[in-house]
């Protein structure tokens, strides 16, 4: 899926289509998984988009797609954290990224904690706390 086409496709998504995409992902549909990865990576501000992104990330956290797709999502999430370009339910994205790449998320939290923006620092501290909790209780 080309980037321009992906952006056009993503902008048209509404709650019913997003729910359908989420259900198809949960049924293991390879095309839906690829589209869901594109959706997570993309910047979109449509109605219900953040909620759908959170649901997809919660699912992927326990049922990860291919490693290259995981890397693409982590790249996007790291960029959102360090630039402060995140919105509602971002912690679901962070939690997934921590599961996929804890060392990378620790490094990005270190960068984000030096931001002059307090809200970015708060999320960086949340990531550090989540990483500490995972290390202290690896089975939970």
Description:
This protein has 140 residues and is an all-alpha fold. The protein has one domain (3-136). It is 76% helix and 0% strand. The chain contains 8 helices and no strands. Helix 2 (15-26) runs parallel beside helix 4 (49-62). The longest helix is centred in the C-terminal third of the chain and has 19 residues, at 118-136. The protein is globular. The model has no long low-confidence stretch (mean pLDDT 92).
Strand tally is 0
Tally of structural domains: 1
Poorly predicted ranges? none
Order of helices and strands: HHHHHHHH
Radius of gyration: 15 Å
Overall outline? globular
Mean pLDDT: 92
Main sheet record: none
Count the helices. How many? 8
Helix content: over 70%
N-to-C span? 36 Å
The SS-based structural class is mainly alpha
| Share of β-strand residues | under 5%
Question: What's this model, at a glance?
Answer:
Helices cover 76% and strands 0% of the residues. By secondary structure, it is mainly alpha-helical.
In terms of topology, how is this protein built?
Elements: H1 3-11, H2 15-26, H3 30-41, H4 49-62, H5 67-83, H6 90-100, H7 102-113, H8 118-136
Helix pairs in contact: 2-3, 2-4, 3-5, 4-6, 5-6, 5-7, 6-7, 6-8, 7-8
Could you name the key traits of this structure?
140 residues; mainly alpha; 8 helices; 76% helix; 0% strand
